[in-house]
């Protein structure tokens, strides 16, 4: 997974980076990059998998906006 | 309006490829979509509605909806959407993903404070005799993620142009919002009549500071 694709660098504030690094170390990630990638991929699912949001679907059905 | 939106407007929104654009009024339910439909109707834009869902306590001035829109997610035949070219059609934000890609869409996207949206939706559920046990905090998070997803989707669609309108701004300064919407739609419509369609008294579930 890592090192197979092209990469881009992003900047983090130093304080945030230090917190990220501390958790990455404790949680056993090999690198900070591996930890950040894992966290971002988990978060992106919320946006990319919106079609399966059953909470919204149920609400809208109750309101009469979808069948 | 973004530079990209402006360029799309100058180029006719892909009219040669997609035909006359369809004006979509969208947003979360209870974010002012019906009010915006009423503004467009007053401005002289043909509205695609079957008037099946009639005015009630939640929308005293009407819904301006088309029943078939509710089937967009389930019905594989979406070719009928093309009939809305040159007209305005109300499509809630959750169903934007189901619009077919063979039309150009000018999307007027209504935004409203999520807590106000949920308060209004919950009252509407009570009026409809429906129950929803989902916690408001969970729904608020789901809606925020959903709205972000719509923005991401909008960036990927070359047949969409989108303008965001805040409901509270439309109430506070309807003239400015009417001018903004009119400019987005090509500047051909009656701004004063759009302004007159705004009824501040219908801003009922208002968050107080």
Structural notes for this entry:
Chain A has helices at 14-27, 32-48, 54-63. With 67 residues, chain A is mainly α. Chain A is elongated, with a radius of gyration of 18 Å. In chain B, strand 1 (22-27), helix 3 (33-43) and strand 2 (88-90) form a beta-alpha-beta unit. By secondary structure, chain B is an alpha/beta fold. Chain B is globular. The mean pLDDT of chain B is 89. Chain B is built from eight helices and four strands, in the order ααβαββααβααα. At the A-B interface, helix 2 and helix 3 of A face helix 4 and helix 5 of B.
Spell the H/E element sequence of chain B.
HHEHEEHHEHHH
Strand elements of chain A, count: 0
How much helix, percentage-wise, in residues of chain B? 25-40%
| Outline type of chain B | globular
Q: How far apart lie the N and C ends of chain A?
A: 41 Å
Mean pLDDT of chain A: 84
**How much β-strand is present in the residues of chain A?**
under 5%
Mean pLDDT over the residues of chain B: 89
**Helicity level of chain A:** 55-70%
List the helices and strands and how they pair.
The complex is a heterodimer of chains A (67) and B (209).
Chain A: H1 14-27, H2 32-48, H3 54-63
Chain B: H1 3-10, H2 15-18, E1 22-27, H3 33-43, E2 88-90, E3 105-111, H4 114-127, H5 136-156, E4 160-166, H6 167-172, H7 174-184, H8 191-196
Parallel strand pairs in B: 1-2, 1-3, 3-4
């Amino acid at each position: 997974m890592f090192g197979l694709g092209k990469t881009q660098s992003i900047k983090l504030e130093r304080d945030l980076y230090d917190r990220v690094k501390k958790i990455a170390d404790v949680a056993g990630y090999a690198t900070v990059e591996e930890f950040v990638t894992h966290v971002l991929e988990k978060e992106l699912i919320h946006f990319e998998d919106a079609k399966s949001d059953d909470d919204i679907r149920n609400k809208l059905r109750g309101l009469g906006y979808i069948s | 309006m973004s530079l990209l939106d402006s360029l799309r407007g100058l180029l006719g929104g892909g009219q040669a490829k997609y035909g006359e654009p369809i004006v979509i009024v969208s947003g979360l339910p209870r974010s002012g979509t019906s009010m915006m439909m009423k503004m467009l109707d007053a401005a002289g834009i043909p509205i695609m509605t079957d008037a099946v869902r009639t005015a009630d306590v939640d929308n005293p001035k009407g819904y301006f909806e088309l029943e078939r829109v509710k089937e967009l997610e389930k019905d594989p035949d979406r070719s009928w959407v093309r009939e809305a070219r040159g007209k305005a059609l109300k499509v809630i934000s959750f169903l934007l993903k189901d619009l077919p890609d063979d039309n150009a869409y000018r999307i007027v996207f209504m935004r409203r404070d999520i807590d106000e949206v949920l308060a209004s939706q919950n009252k509407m559920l009570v009026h409809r005799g429906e129950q929803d046990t989902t916690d408001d905090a969970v729904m608020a998070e789901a809606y925020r993620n959903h709205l972000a997803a719509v923005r991401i989707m909008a960036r990927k669609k070359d047949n969409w142009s989108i303008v965001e309108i805040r409901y509270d701004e439309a109430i506070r300064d309807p003239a400015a919002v009417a001018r903004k919407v009119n400019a987005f739609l090509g500047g051909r419509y009656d701004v004063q009549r759009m302004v007159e369609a705004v009824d501040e008294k219908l801003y009922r579930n208002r968050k107080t500071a």
